[in-house]
């Protein structure tokens, strides 16, 4: 079964792929209509959507790496962190 609480960056990566495609196609159709050349507009829209997907994926992977680095450093919970009780 998949994790119920995904890592912070995982959600951003998943959303980025869908949002990039949706925004890219929307911009592409709008540009195609404005320029009276649907092929050119969709091509430009796909490029914009791809750039958006790459940006979201990169930001999500950076967040996942930061989350992984901070986790083990916090406290292991086994009392080995030097704190006396």
Keywords:
85 residues, mainly alpha
Brief characterization of the structure:
The chain is built from 2 helices and no strands.
Descriptive overview:
The structure is a single chain. This protein has 85 residues and is mainly alpha-helical. It is elongated.
What is the topology?
Blueprint lengths: L7 H28 L2 H37 L11
Helix pairs in contact: 1-2
Q: What sort of overall outline do the alpha carbons produce when their principal axes are compared?
A: elongated
Round the mean pLDDT to the nearest integer and report it. 76
Largest sheet: none
- Helix fraction by DSSP (H/I, runs of at least 4): over 70%
Q: Give the distance, in angstroms, between the N- and C-terminal Cα atoms.
A: 38 Å
**What is the CA-atom radius of gyration, in angstroms?**
21 Å
Please tally the β strands and state the result.
0
| Strand portion | under 5%
Parts with pLDDT < 50 across at least 5 consecutive residues = 70-76
- N-to-C SSE series? HH
Helix count, DSSP H or I runs of 4 or more residues: 2
Provide the structure class.
mainly alpha
């Amino acid at each position: 079964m998949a994790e119920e609480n995904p890592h912070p960056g995982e959600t951003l990566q998943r959303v980025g792929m869908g949002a990039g495609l949706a925004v890219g196609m929307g911009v592409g159709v709008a540009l195609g209509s404005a320029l009276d050349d649907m092929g050119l507009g969709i091509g430009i829209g796909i490029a914009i959507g791809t750039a958006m997907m790459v940006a979201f994926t990169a930001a999500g992977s950076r967040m996942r790496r930061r989350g992984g680095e901070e986790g083990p450093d916090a406290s292991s919970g086994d009392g080995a962190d030097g704190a006396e009780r």
